[in-house]
Amino acid sequence: MAAATAWLAQDPDAETQAELRALLRGAQSADQAAITELHARFDERLAFGTAGLRGAIGAGSNRMNRVLVSQAAAGLAAFLIGTALPGQTPSVVIGYDGRKNSQVFATDSAAIMAGAGVRAILLPRLLPTPVLAFAVRHLDASAGVMVTASHNPAADNGYKVYLGGANNGSQIVSPDDAFIAAEIHRVATHATIPDLVRGVYETAEETVVQAYIAETAASVGAPRAQVNAVYTAMHGVGWDTTRRVLEAAGYDLPTLVDAQIAPDPTFPTVAFPNPEEPGALDLAFATAREVNAELVIANDPDADRLAIAIPDADSASGYRRLTGNEVGAILGWRAAERAELAPIADEAVTGDDADASAPAPRSGTLACSIVSSPALKAVADAYGMRFEETLTGFKWVSRAPGLVFGYEEALGYLVNPTTVRDKDGISAALALLSLVSDLKNEGFTLADHLHHFSGRFGHFSSSQISVRVTDLSEISRVMDRLRSNPPAFIGRIRVDHIDDLAGGFVGLPPSDVLRIRLVGGARVMVRPSGTEPKLKVYLDTSSVVGTVVERQVAANAVLAELERGMRELIA
Question: Do 472 and 431 share a structural domain?
Answer without folding.
Answer: no
